[in-house]
Amino acid sequence: MSKNSTSTGSKVSLSFRQKLMALAIATIVVMPAIAAAQNENAAIKLVVQQDRTSDGAIHRDNGVYRDTQQRIKNLNDSGLRLADYQLSKAQCWLDVSFHEYTRSDRGHFPQEALAESQRILTALEGKQNPGMETPLVNGAEKLRPDLWARYDALKTHAGYQCAAQQTACAEVELVHAGNEIHEAGWRHAKPYIQIAEDLLGTAEKSATSCLPVVAVASASAPVAATAIPVAPALLKEKIVLSADALFHFDKSSVADLLPKGRAELDELAKKIGADKTLVSALALIGYTDRLGSVAYNLRLSLARANTVKSYLQTQGVNVPMAVDGRGLQDQVIACADIKESEKLRDCLQPNRRVEVIIYRSERQ
Packing angle between helix 294-314 and helix 145-154, nearest 10 degrees? Predict the structure, then answer.
């Protein structure tokens, strides 16, 4: 199931829920906007739950949804891409609100999700930053900390601009699931968790395919906002460095580099310097094994990738370098049948690695 919306020029592609919304709204006579709509910063509210019993009340609420959808379209028409994180999140809050409204959810979730969509839109219309937080509306439980950690990691990914839309919608769906837990139980929450997982998988793939846009490091941040497009006609080479050869176990700093690791990095620096092709950029991607927490492994893998970057720079490598930490993602070996801790750690060794992707084009 896809909840993504894309924009090509001024043409908007609608998700299933948006099409359902449009169909419902197109078949009714919309009531006049309420007086609060005259104040563009006012949150237009739905009819209170106990009064949603007449055609007039339902028609009026569909008008609220229509007006909110129009605000999204207006922002899109003014130049804000639907793939923008904030506009995507406003759309997804609107989608889940309408979804639960059409399922006759008589709780507060449809209103609170709608209000969050309107809050973001009001900020965007006023040229303000709505912030990156995804609130747990209606007292939703914060499910799956592992997914939240991966969402946070995506926001520091060099290719995040290609994954922002899926990330925004995945976060909203996970709040949606957290609401369903206490409103209707696990069985009702599970489909929305699956949507959140599927969107995250798509986002991570999108971010990876975006790596040819390489971020330049600055003194104030490991990865700055400036992006350098790498020429599309690229030759790529991947070099895999064992983290166990690079670092002491569970360590990540330059001081923790092992003699073998320093020798491997020195050799890599020489290879890049002596390459007969023009090296355009590097992508440095850290991975860990599956032992330990998701959040800890994400931090460790990113720290190791940053250390490799810093060391290469000291050895004279001055091409743009994108840095990413993926923690326990993309395990190359599972070792599922090994229980004894020391043997398991040894078996999982291939997962602990730093991948160096070299982007280059032929010299002219």
Answer: 20
